[in-house]
Design brief:
This protein is of the alpha/beta class. It has helices at about 15-25, 55-60, 80-100, 115-120, 145-160, 185-200, 210-215, 220-235, 250-265, 275-280, 285-295, 310-315, 325-330, 340-350; strands at about 5-10, 30-35, 45-50, 70, 105-110, 165-170, 175, 205, 215, 220, 240-245, 250, 265-270. Strands 3-2-1-4-5-6-11 form a 7-stranded parallel sheet, sandwiched between helices. Helix 3 (about 80-100) links the parallel strand 4 (about 70) and strand 5 (about 105-110). It is globular. InterPro entries: NAD(P)-bd_dom_sf, PRISE-like_Rossmann-fold. It holds the Pfam family PRISE. This is SDR family oxidoreductase.
């Protein structure tokens, strides 16, 4: 049993990072949270402000930080996959290089996602043969450039150099609270539902027929936090990659009306046409600002809450997406989260925190 568990969460202000901070703090860890603007509201978290692309900034910020475990939960979106590889590979390389001289790191966990199987945004589930589902960790890398692969390779290289163990975690769409997040389906749908209610428009399904009728799954931010903590402290989980989803499957044709009912709006399903949220929500900034002023919401900028581009990518896929959890189950990770509750818990939290009416 480890008696001194000191975590450095890289990306502590994001959906995964903030939930992981809560998980580790409640189980006795010392936790440092690194970000450009680290959260100040998480009780017990030691904030560390640094620029991941500036090695000098990292070296100075980490002078007195000696983690036993590093959790990399962030990335920086670029215009092309070539730039994604350059920037996000450097992000991982820089943080591990800054920590290397300390010789304190025992384990590094990297959060990537299902683009490992589906391909990067530029070629998202397009062309050629679609990957087989449910996705399993032993499936080989695609023969295409992918910044997730570059990040993994940086972890492997640093592990070979410094002797720490590692784990890779591949969630599906993550459902949880974060403001200003690049990939935030749950909050995006909550904002969209409130705009529909305000304007009297139906809660129109935005995606493909395959997603509407097919099976799917998602990842609650709380359950990936639990898997990250489990893998970091379980010897059998060392040097392995793990899928992580809630553990149930659903069809959007079943879930969509339930989400609409929570907000009291009319649900409309797939009608033969894709209706992207980027189109449906275009020009809604003034509507949201008016809602924010009337209800005294904490955030009045629509772009800080909603990421319709990413929700469109997820819900517009030409195939159903399911993720196999057998590998971690066999090693003893048994956590489970009903997906309906993931959304409803998030909506209630967003309302309590005055992020939605």
């Amino acid at each position: 049993m480890m008696t001194n568990k000191t975590a450095l969460i890289v990306g502590a202000s994001g959906i995964v990072g903030s939930n992981l901070a809560h998980e580790l703090l409640t189980t006795g860890w010392t936790v440092y949270g690194l970000a450009r603007r680290p959260p100040q509201h998480i009780l017990g978290l030691h904030p560390v402000a640094a620029d991941l692309l500036d090695p000098t900034s990292l070296e100075v910020a980490l002078t007195d930080v000696n983690p036993t475990h590093v959790f990399i939960t962030t990335w920086m979106r670029q215009d092309t996959e070539t730039e994604n590889i350059r920037v996000n590979g450097a992000l991982v390389r820089n943080i591990l290089a800054a920590l290397s001289p300390k010789k304190t790191v025992q384990h590094v966990a990297l959060v990537t996602g299902l683009k490992h199987y589906l391909g990067p945004f530029e070629a998202y589930a397009k062309g050629g043969t679609l990957p087989a589902t449910p996705f399993r960790e032993e499936q080989p890398r695609l023969a295409i450039d992918n910044f997730y692969y570059a990040q993994e390779d940086e972890v492997y290289a640093a592990a070979a150099r410094d002797g720490f163990s590692w784990s890779i975690h591949r969630p599906h769409t993550i459902i949880g609270k974060a403001v200003g997040n690049l990939m935030n389906m749950g909050t995006t749908l909550a904002v969209y539902a409130n705009i529909c209610k305000e304007t009297g428009q139906p809660f129109q399904w935005p995606g493909s027929e395959a997603q509407w009728n097919g099976l799917s799954d998602v990842t609650d931010a709380r359950i990936i936090a639990k898997q990250l903590a489990w893998a970091a402290t379980t010897p059998a989980a060392r040097n392995e990659a793990f899928n992580i989803v809630n553990g149930d499957y659903f069809r959007w044709s079943w879930l969509w009306p339930r989400l609409a009912a929570w907000f009291g709006v009319e649900a409309r399903g797939f009608d033969g046409t894709v209706h992207p949220l980027e189109v449906q929500m275009a020009g809604s900034e003034a509507t949201w600002q008016a809602l924010a002023e009337r209800h005294q919401l904490a955030v009045s900028e629509l772009s800080q809450l909603a990421s319709p581009w990413h929700t469109d990518l997820d819900l517009g896929r030409p195939l159903e997406v399911m993720t196999d959890m057998t590998k971690s189950r066999k090693l003893g990770f048994y956590e489970y989260q009903p997906t309906e509750d993931s959304f409803f818990d998030l909506f209630a939290q967003l309302r309590q925190d005055r992020l939605i009416p």
